[in-house]
Amino acid sequence: MLKRTTASAVFVVVALMTAGCMAPPKDLDLSLDKKSAGGVYQVALLPPAQAPTINQMHSWKVRLATAEGVPVRGAKFLVDGGMPQHGHGLPTQPRVTREMEAGTYALDGMKFSMTGWWEVKLAIDGPQGTDKVTFNTVVNNPTAR
Ligand SMILES: [Cu+2]
C-alpha cells in the first residue's frame, strides 16, 4: 500500500518535469480574430510579419472594433497571459503603447521564452465598455520548421 503511494507520487513528479513536452490540446481555438468574452468588441491580434523566435522581443498589433465592425478609438488595454500547461505567466510585461491608426494599436514587448501553447489575454477598456478576450497561440521551434 505504502509502496503504491510512493510510486504514484514519483509518477506525478515525473509528469510535472516533462510538462515542457506536453502537446497543446487538439481542439485549441487558434483564431486571432474573435469576439470579446461579453460580445462587446471584435478583436484581432496581428502577429509580427516574421514568426517570432524564442526569447526574441517582438511587436504585435491589436485591432479593435465594435461588434458591428466599426474601428474603436481611444481604448486602453491591459495585457496578461502565460502557458496554461506550465502554470507560468509571460516572461515580460507587454503593453499596448499607442494607437497607430483608428482602432489599430501597437502591442510592444512581447516575448515567448519557450515553445508550446501560450495564452495572450487582453482586458479592454473602451468607449463601449470593458470586456476581455483570450487568444491562443502555439509557438514552434523555428529550427524545426
Ligand atoms: Cu512554459
Q: What's the alpha carbon Rg, rounded to whole Å?
A: 18 Å
Runs in which pLDDT lies below 50 for 5 or more consecutive residues are none
Distance between the termini: 47 Å
CATH homologous superfamily heading: Macroglobulin (MG2) domain
Question: Roughly what percent helix?
Answer: 10-25%
Reported for the largest beta sheet, the result is: 5 strands, antiparallel
Using the alpha-carbon principal axes, give the shape.
globular
Counting structural domains, the number is: 1
Task: List the strand order in the largest sheet.
Answer: 1-2-3-7-6
Count of strand segments = 9
Please work out how many helical segments DSSP would assign.
1
Helix-strand pattern, N to C? Answer: HEEEEEEEEE
Bin the strand percentage. Answer: 35-45%
Which ligands, by name, code or SMILES, are bound? Answer: copper (II) ion
Counting helices, strands and paired strands, the structural category is: mainly beta
> What is the CATH T-level topology?
Immunoglobulin-like
Q: Which CATH class is shown?
A: Mainly Beta
Q: CATH architecture, please?
A: Sandwich
Mean pLDDT metric: 89
